[in-house]
Structure formats: C-alpha cells, structure tokens
Q: What sequence folds into this?
C-alpha cells in the first residue's frame, strides 16, 4: 500500500492448516529505512456464497508503537489459489514457460 509519505508492505502465506509459512509487515520511508510492524492479522470479507474477497481488515502492532488497523476494499479481483505458479495458465509454474525450454 502506497501513501504520500510512506508505503506498507504486508505478506502473509499460510498452509491449509493455517500455519504461517511466510509473513512480513514493514513500513518503508522514502529514505529507504523501514519499521517493523509486528505480526500482521487479517480478516477478509467474501462476496456471499463465494471465495471472492471484496474487502479486508489488516492489523499491525509495531513493537513499542500504537497498534493500528487498515481496511481496504478491492478495486480489482483477487484470486485465492492453491498450488504453484503465478497464473491461471496450465503451462506456467515457476519458470516452466514454453519459451524457457
């Protein structure tokens, strides 16, 4: 998320059992310094009867700082996917594009 005076980078990856495999939450300032924002929490909201995310609340608790939440509504669709690769293409799985062969 980019703001006028800083950006926030938040990544959360979990396995099917909800165990965190990867997480990152930092505020990045224009001079390149970063501030750790603690373990992020999140609560997505779905379109009724679907797995389509329509909004989400993300919480941050910086050590020694004041906890804060952010709420975002989607402007474009977000696809929750299982498996490897970066797209919906049968041949695209982490560098397995035909042009690489």
A:
């Amino acid at each position: 998320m980019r703001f006028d005076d800083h950006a926030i980078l938040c990544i959360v990856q979990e396995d099917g059992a909800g165990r965190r495999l990867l997480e990152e939450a930092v505020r990045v300032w224009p001079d390149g310094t970063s501030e750790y924002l603690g373990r992020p929490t999140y609560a997505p909201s779905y379109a009724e009867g679907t797995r389509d995310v329509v909004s989400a609340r993300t919480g941050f608790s910086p050590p020694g700082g004041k906890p804060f939440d952010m709420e975002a509504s989607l402007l474009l669709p977000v696809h929750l996917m299982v498996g490897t690769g970066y797209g919906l293409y049968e041949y695209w799985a982490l560098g397995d594009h035909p042009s690489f062969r």
The chain has a mean pLDDT of 84. The chain has no helices and six strands. The CA atoms of residues 30 and 59 lie 22 Å apart. The beta strands are 7-14, 20-28, 34-36, 41-46, 53-60, 68-73.
